[in-house]
Specification:
Blueprint lengths: L2 H15 L8 H4 L9 H8 L19 E2 L5 E5 L4 H6 L6 H12 L8 E4 L13 H18 L3 E5 L1 H8 L5 H4 L4 E3 L2 E6 L2 H6 L4 H16 L7
Parallel strand pairs: 2-3, 2-4, 4-6
Antiparallel strand pairs: 1-3, 5-6
The protein binds iron/sulfur cluster (SF4).
Length: 224
Amino acid sequence: MDTREQLAEHLKFLTELGVPGLARDKAWRRQLPSSPVGLPAIREEIGDCTRCKLHRLGRRQIVFGVGNPNATLMFAGEAPGRDEDVQGIPFVGRAGQLLTKMIEAIGMTRDEVYIANVIKCRPPENRNPEPDEVAACEPFLFRQVESIKPKVIVALGTFAAQALLRTREPISRLRGQQFTYGDATLIPTFHPAFLLRSPERKRDVWEDMKKVRALLDLDPSGRA
Ligand code: SF4
C-alpha cells in the first residue's frame, strides 16, 4: 500500500469513527458552515439572477425570504406562487395563511421566524421546479440557513426536504422522522398547499409542529 492509499484508509477509518471534518461526501460538506455571510450579502450575490431558465419564464421578481435574521425556527418551502411573485414575499397566498396559522399554533409569530423557498422565482403556472432549477437555486437556501443558524428547520413538502436532506425520498416517507442538518434539527412535514387539498393530513402536521415546539423549548444542554 503506497502512502496515498494509507492516508485514504486512515481518513476512512477516522470518518467511520465519527471524527468530524473528514467526510468526503459533497452533500455532507455543503452542510458545514462556511464563512459567515449575512442575508443582505447573499441577496446581493443573487442580484438580478439569470442562473436558471426561470428568469425568462415570467417571474416578476425574486422572492428571497422574510423574517427574523436570527430566528431559532426557519421554514423552507418550494417556490413562489402567483401572490408571492406579485408581493415579493414568500407564503402570502392561501397556503401562506395556513402557514401563519401553523406558526401561531405553537405560540410564535411570522416576525419571529424566517421563511424562504428552495426556488426564488415563480415557475410558470406553478409547475413543479425542474432539477436544473433546483440545482441552480438551492445553494442560496443553504447559505440562508448558514447565516441564520436556526435551531429547528421545518422543510415544507418534498422539494425542500429533498434539497436539504440530499435524498430522493418523497415527503410521505420522510414525514414523521427528524434529521440533523448542520447544528439544526430538521423536521420534514407536508406543504401547506397540500394541506389545502388534503385537510385530513392537518393532524399529522400538528403532530410535527408540537415536536418543533418541544425542540425549541429544549435548553442548549438538551434538557426540557
Ligand atoms: Fe436565479 Fe434561483 Fe431565480 Fe433561477 S430560480 S433565476 S437560480 S434566483
